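Minutes, project check-in
Item: structure for the 462-residue chain
Input as provided by the requester:
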Amino acid sequence: MGSPEIEKDEPVTPAGRLFLRPEMDQVINCVIGAKNPFDVDAVKKEITNSMMLKHPRFCSLMVRDRHGREYWRKTEIDIDRHIIILNDSLDGDNDEDAVNGYLADLSVSSPLSTDKPLWEIHFLTAHKCAVVRIHHALGDGISLMSLLLACFRRSDCPDQLPTMGSSSQPKPRNSRRRNRLWELLNIAWFTLVFVVEFIIRSLWVKDRKTTISGGAGVELWPRKLTTAKFLLDDMKTVKNAIPNGTINDVLFGVISAGLSRYLDHRAPNIELREGIQMTGVAMVNLRKQPGLQEMAELMQSKSGSRWGNKFGMLLLPVYYHKGLVGPLDYIKKAKTVIDRKKQSLEAYFSYKIGYFVMNFLGSKIACVLNYRIVCNTTFTISNVLGPGEEITIVGNPVTYIRANSTALPHAITMHMVSYAGRADLQILVAKDIIPDPKFLAKCFEEALLEMKEAAAEATSRS
């Protein structure tokens, strides 16, 4: 009999190598709240039998060769090394504050150990929640959400997996195609403009400094975390009041209005220039089918929906306004910006530029350029679509799903996840720059409610 075949180490992808750089060491923290305390042994058994531990990324160590090149090396999993149980209550006025405080501390002080695969689960038993920590080198938000949901079941159909929804919307067809040439010209023009802006942002151009600006080194500053809570029905009401509007249009309009309110609150005696730009860094899924992907597709390396990090970067500006004609004006202005971005290939080119730099100039240069983009902008924003129906894990109903990541040079990092008719926006801030994140969250929530009222009035008049 021949000797068993030894599995070769698999090179880490270019995007994964970027996230492993010390300057950009990114860990995704996903907190899952439950109606009842978790049965840890039952959850461990579920995870052991799930696709999660069948996936090679979750069963591999990250190792480096003598040249510093990163590889994945298969290893045996000891699940107990990945489980951390905290039985004591955390400091905080309530469960939400306590959990957010714990996550804020994790965002700056707790990297994942490289002597085991780069994931772990923290059970906060006194607060009936679990924090799943996964290194960004293992995959992006779409991949990881799909994998996590493979461990859950629908509340109404316990034998079925949660619905893998899609955020895509059908595009209007132009049967005569008379505007095709004009569309191609728009694509070429907007792509050129936005790609040039992307490049110069990575070199020297930066947002004008405001009271919410971060900068180099801010990723090491202490953090606070709070949650802005929205109802998807409210966002849809606003969306429907804007022709061809989307949830992302509403989200960016809310952010624009909320940041304007907050700046007025923080600096009421400082004359801010009307229309001052605050640029957000947004991640865009580049898979052929946007939204959550079926696990079978994600685990096929040749699939267009393959597992891993496959996203581009968009620079999305919002603007300070002392006061517009009405709340919906913020949505209209945000929609104009986003529609132009959709007509460009900025996200695709940003992905290809990053891939080129990683392969030909190395991860160090790619990290420097990526770090400068973050330093030269104002905030990070992401929006991941979660399950539309209520779900359970080992029979325990899930009450919320929220996500954030480790700190960046931005003073504000925002991650929205929708679940069962709600959308929770986690707002991670550098507390020495933004000491009152709860007020910032209130600015966002009140902005959406005002937009909802304006949308209802507009509908009643029509």
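Outcome recorded: The first helix runs from residue 14 to 19.
No further action items on this chain.
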